[in-house]
Inverse folding.
């Protein structure tokens, strides 16, 4: 798979051999290195579980897992070790110490966040900048 936006990934079903197990509601990130850690998944039983990115395969149609055992129960543990994508949305992005715009989306290539999609407002509109060297001031403390 090539690149995919984080918002598009959050609209994909999580499936095992064609059976839908749930849907992602957030993406946890490591913002120092701009890598995705994994998905927070709302499962069919209405519980939230953590799906490590390394234990899944994201395609244009689904997030595929080989086993339902890859959906881990202790979401809180992983939330404390990553940053919520949803908490960053709308946050001010700084590049080289200067405001660059508000975060609108992320571009993922494998597990790496390669670009940030920013809203600069006005005539400047929507632009993409490299994730590397960017700092996002979260718009909210956490995402539920």
């Amino acid at each position: 798979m090539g690149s995919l936006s984080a918002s598009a990934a959050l609209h994909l079903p999580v499936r095992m051999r064609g059976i839908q197990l749930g849907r992602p509601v957030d993406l946890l990130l490591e913002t120092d290195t701009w890598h995705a850690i994994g998905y927070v998944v709302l499962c069919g039983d209405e519980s939230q579980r953590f799906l490590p990115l390394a234990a899944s395969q994201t395609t244009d149609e689904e997030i595929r897992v080989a086993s339902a055992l890859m959906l881990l129960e202790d979401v809180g543990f992983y939330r404390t070790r990553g940053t919520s994508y949803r908490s960053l949305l709308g946050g001010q992005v700084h590049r080289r110490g200067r405001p660059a715009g508000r975060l609108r989306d992320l571009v993922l290539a494998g597990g790496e966040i390669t670009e940030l999609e920013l809203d600069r407002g006005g005539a400047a509109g929507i632009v993409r900048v490299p994730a590397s060297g960017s700092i996002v001031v979260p718009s909210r403390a956490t995402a539920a």
About this structure: Residues 34 and 113 are 5 Å apart (CA to CA). The first helix runs from residue 6 to 9. The first strand starts at residue 3 and ends at 5.
